[in-house]
């Protein structure tokens, strides 16, 4: 399977939401359709504990969600990296309490479609630093935050990327997907 980080980000590359620039319920139809298209390519949703708890506290309560996101997340094969969580409290969830790198490498070796990681900044930064990411997806919102954690971890060496997909949406969000260039960030590169 392919390891894919999908993040919502500001124009200045911040993924940590310290200002109200992102609302999951406020998406234009084109953007919602793109998200569902990507979800159809997903076999596993991998989350860090905090993002998992945020999702678990929000999405199951969205009983009038017309986008299909709530139903899709409920049915998804969810895996949460946590050394403290013992009961996920959400259907179709497996807790990864051991080495997350070992678990991600094992998923990468399995046949199938994408393993998606979103939010989960600490986990994403660790996977980026370990060279375990095959595709970076960025949904850029027209907002300048000026503070907060970025898509790539502070101090991460320059990484060459090649854009493989791009699109602009009527609500002002732009989307681009990038793969790491050979030798710069993916341990699967030959």
TrEMBL record:
Domain of life according to the entry: Bacteria
Domain Bacterial bifunctional deaminase-reductase C-terminal: 4-174
Signal peptide: none
Database matches in InterPro entries: DHFR-like_dom_sf (IPR024072), RibDG_C (IPR002734), Riboflavin_Biosynth_HTPR (IPR050765)
Name of the featured protein: Dihydrofolate reductase family protein
Organism the protein comes from: Citricoccus nitrophenolicus
Lineage summary: Bacteria, Bacillati, Actinomycetota, Actinomycetes, Micrococcales
């Amino acid at each position: 399977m392919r390891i894919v980080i999908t993040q919502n980000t500001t124009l200045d590359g911040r993924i940590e939401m310290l200002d109200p620039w992102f609302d999951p319920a406020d998406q234009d139809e084109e953007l919602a359709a793109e998200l569902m298209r990507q979800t159809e390519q997903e076999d596993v949703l991998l989350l860090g504990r905090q993002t998992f708890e945020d999702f678990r506290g929000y999405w199951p309560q969205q009983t009038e969600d017309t986008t299909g996101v709530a139903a899709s997340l409920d049915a998804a094969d969810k895996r949460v990296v946590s050394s403290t969580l013992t009961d996920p409290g959400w259907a179709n969830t497996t807790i990864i309490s051991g080495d997350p790198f070992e678990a991600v490498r094992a998923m990468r070796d399995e046949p199938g479609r994408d393993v998606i990681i979103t939010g989960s900044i600490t986990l994403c930064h660790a996977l980026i630093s370990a060279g375990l990411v095959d595709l970076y997806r960025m949904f850029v919102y027209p907002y300048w935050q000026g503070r907060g954690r970025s898509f790539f971890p502070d101090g991460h060496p320059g990484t060459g990327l090649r854009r493989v997909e791009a699109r602009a949406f009527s609500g002002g969000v732009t989307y681009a997907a990038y793969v790491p260039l050979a030798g710069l960030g993916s341990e699967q590169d030959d």
